[in-house]
Design goal:
The protein contains 5 helices and 9 strands, in the order βααβαβββαββαββ. β2, α3 (60-69) and β3 form a beta-alpha-beta unit. The strands form 2 sheets. A 7-stranded mixed beta sheet has the order 4-3-2-5-6-9-8, with helices on both faces. The protein is globular and about 45 Å long. It has a single domain (3-190), classed as Rossmann fold, CATH 3.40.50. The protein is 30% helix and 28% strand. It is an alpha/beta fold.
């Protein structure tokens, strides 16, 4: 069932991502307090000291994670507009950032539908986790509705889990099963 929009080039992908982000920047926020609070409740006894959020636009995810966890929180965003966002590095989350390898106890994204290489991107994210780290992907069927240059990935939860397993991760939990935004789920993977 998975579909990946075929861009003419990597540069065309980057351009489409930047255009979509710039269009939504400061207007549309996907993340919800209740979702981050549920993630916090799931992890509150796990000694989370560092969190990385991928695809964060204005940095709202980082602010919410900081509010609930009170630890080191950072984020990535592809658009240069994010250079002024707090706790954010302008970066393509599909690519390795040597400074992030093995550094984060928790990685979160609700932007996995923006990747063009899902299996490889999950490998990049896995390598950013500490030995006991966890990856949280907020996913909903709504992500599949827009298969387009800006939202290139359409997939099922089972396919995301299969790609995670191909990278040596296992599904640990489904937080907020069909109760996150748009009846979504937060899929939690461990190394």
């Amino acid at each position: 069932m998975s579909k990946i929009w075929k861009h003419k080039s990597y540069e065309a992908y980057i351009d489409a991502q930047k255009k979509l982000t710039d269009k939504k920047y400061g207007k549309i926020v996907f993340v919800r307090d209740s979702v981050i609070e549920s993630i916090y409740k799931h992890f509150k006894d796990k000694n989370v000291q560092s969190i990385l959020c991928h695809g964060t636009r204005t940095g709202d995810e980082q602010k919410l994670f900081k509010k609930f966890f009170g630890c080191y929180v950072w984020g990535s965003e592809l658009s240069e507009r994010a250079q002024n966002a707090e706790m954010t590095t302008v970066w393509d989350f599909n690519k390795v950032n040597e400074d992030w390898i093995g550094k984060f106890d928790l990685i979160y994204s609700n932007s996995f539908d923006h990747c063009i290489t899902p299996k490889e991107t999950l490998g990049v994210w896995k390598d950013q986790l500490t030995e006991n780290g966890r990856l949280c992907i907020e996913w909903t069927e709504f992500h599949n509705a827009n298969n387009s240059p800006g939202d290139p990935l359409a997939a099922t939860e089972a396919e995301i889990t299969e790609w995670a397993e191909q990278n040596g991760m296992t599904l640990e939990a489904e937080v907020l099963k069909h109760k996150a935004k748009y009846q979504g789920t937060v899929l939690v993977y461990k190394k």
